[in-house]
TrEMBL record:
Source superkingdom: Eukaryota
Biological pathway: Glycan biosynthesis; glycogen metabolism
Location(s) in or outside the cell: Cell membrane
One function term, GO molecular function aspect: calmodulin binding
Protein's name according to its UniProt entry: Phosphorylase b kinase regulatory subunit
Domain GH15-like per the UniProt entry, residue ranges: 2-471
UniProt keywords, alphabetically: Calmodulin-binding, Carbohydrate metabolism, Cell membrane, Glycogen metabolism, Kinase, Lipoprotein, Membrane, Prenylation, Transferase
One of the protein's GO biological processes: glycogen metabolic process
Amino acid sequence: MFYYVTKENVDYEKADPGSQLRSAAPYYDDGQDAPLFLWNQALYVIAELLTSNLLHINELDPIRRYLPSYNRPKRPGRYSAFQGTATDLVVQVVLIAESMRLQAMMATYGIQTQTPHEVEPVQIWSSTQLVKVYKNLGINSKLKLTGRPLRPIGALGTSKMYRVCGMTVLCYPLIFEVSEFYLYRDMSLLIDDIKTELQFVSRFWRLSGRPTVCLLIREEHMRDPQFEEMLDLFAMLKKGHCDGIKVRIGRLQNLLSSSCMEHLDFMNNVGANNLEFEPFKQLEYDYSGYQSLTDVPKASVYTEDIINIENYQNKSTNEIIQTIRNGVGLFSQAQLYGLLLKRESFEKEVNGSTIREHLTTLYHSAGCLHYWIAVRYCSSLLCHTVDSISPFITTVLVNGKQLTVGVVDQKETVFDKPMTPAAIHSIMYSTIQPYNIIQAVLQQEIILYCGRLIGTNPDVFKGILKIRVGWVLEAMKLQLKTEKETKMVENLSPYAIRQLLQKILTVKEWAQKEQISMFQKRQLEGCWCRVP
C-alpha cells in the first residue's frame, strides 16, 4: 500500500506542494500491471543481490553509520575525528609561567613549568585570538555568509592543538582571561574553575587524541593569599590525578604527538598577513626572581570606616570633591564618585582626571586588595557585564526553570527565553541599578553560578520552577545572619558567594545537622520558591 498524487493533479502539487490530496494505491487483480513503487522495488533488488551473494551486507553502508562512532573505520586526516568515549582518558596538562622569575619560584616547590619562550615554535594564544581566526570560517560573499559569529571558544575547543597559517598554536581556557569583570581576581574561584574545567573535558571529550589543557600562571596570582592552595592543586596534578581524573603534566613538546591536532586549512585562503595575531607574551625582568612565597609581597587585608552616603545627598558638588581630596576609603570614594556621576557624567573632570578614570583606578586598586564591596560598586558604576552570561541563562531555561532579576519589593524582569548579551546588559542596569547599585553585578554572579550548577547537578534545583535572584540574595543574608557572620554579603569573595549559594540550595541536607529551626528552613526554601 502506498499513497500518490493523481496524474491530473501533479501540476497543481508542483505549484503548491502539499496542497493536493493523496490517493491510496488501488488493488489489482492477477494479470494486471500495478504501478511501480520505487522504494519497494529498491528493497527487492537489494534482497536479490544479497541472496545471490553478489553483495555483502557491509557493502550496503561503506561508512558504517549503523555502528557506534568509535567502531567506524577511521581515515587518517588533517582534522579531528570523533572516536567515542575513551575508558582510560588521560587529560594532558601544560603549565605556562608568565615570567622566568615565576618559573624559578615554582621550581622551588617542585612544580616544573615552561615560559612562552621555552615552548617555541608553539605559540600560546588567548581563546579570543582563536575566535578571530574562526570568524573566517565559511565566509562567502556570493551566498552572503559572514563566517562564524564572534562567540567564545569553550573548554573542548581550547583543549586541541591548532595549525594556523604554518603556526602551531595552543590556547588557554576562558577561565584565565583577564576580563573587565572582577571574577578572575578570586584565586579560590579560579582553583575551583580549574577542577571543573578538567572534569568537564574528561567527561565530554570524544575526539581522537588526548585533550591538552593549558594552565596559565600569572605573577599576580603569587600575591594572592590562596596561592598556596594553587600549589597544592599543582602538586595533586603532578601525582597524576585530580578528583578521580587521570592527568599528565609534561613539557608541551613531549605532549604534541599524543595531542588532538586540528588543521585550520580555511585560513590558507585568507593568509596570515591579513590578520594580526597576538600571542601570550612573556614578562621580562632583570632580577631573576623570588625564591619562595615568603619573598613575595602579599596583599594586605583592607578595612575602612564607611561613610553614610545619605549625608552627602544634599551637599554641593564642590563639597563632595573636597571630601574626596581630604582622603576617604576606597568604598567611600566609590560612593562619592557615584553621587557625582548621577549629577554630572563620566567625562566630568575631578582632580585632573575624569570620573571614569577615577572609578577604573579605584576598581583595580580595590581588586588588588580583594576589597570586594568596593570592587562590585565600581564595576556596577562602570556597567560591567559577566563574560558569556547569555549561555548560562539559556542553560537555566533549557532545564525548565525561569529566571527573574530585580531588587526585592521592586519591579522584576523575567527571563523566559534566550536573549542577546546586549539585551541582558540593558535589563540588568535598568531593572536593578536604580534601586541597588551593587546588586546589578551581584545578581549576575548568582545567575552565572546557578547556570554552572544546574548544568552539572540539576537535581539540587528539584522543586524550583522560578529562580528569583533578588530573593536568593535575601536567603544569603538570612543565612549569614543565622551564622552570625559580620561580613555583608556584598563584601564576600566570589568563591564565598558560590559556596554560600550551594549551601542554601541544599538546606535539606544539613538543616538537621546544624539544628536550624523549621521556620529558618522554610524561610530559605521560600526564597528559592521551592515547592514540595
